[in-house]
Input
Amino acid sequence: MDIPLPIRDFCRLAQVSAHTLRYYERAGIMPRVDRNDGGHRRYTERHLRWIRFLRHLRMAGMPVAAIRRYTGLLDQGAAGDERRMKLLRDHRERVAAQLEELRGHLAVIDKKLREGCGPDLERRAGSRIRPSAKRRRA
Output
């Protein structure tokens, strides 16, 4: 990577839109970006590593507010290490629970694919389901 990069080249390399990148900067979750004499942003390898990690966090459902807390802890250096790692562990647990739930949904879909899902099968399955009998008044 030839560095520093202008925003257009950086976005192409990082696979994010300029709009998203500027949003992350305004949200306070991007490291400071130096500017050239003309005021244009210049991104470095450090920004690329960060944006790739940030995309993983976002795709795994971490809210921007939590990422902001994480970056604030980064600014504290070693003093924030333990809390930063706890934040990541907690998020990992949430992601793992979501994966487990998705595996259950996937199993139901796989079963339906194995057994078939045509209208005739649905009607036959429906005929096996008996509505509960209405209670009679005494």
In short: The chain has six helices and two strands. Strands lie at 34-35, 41-42.
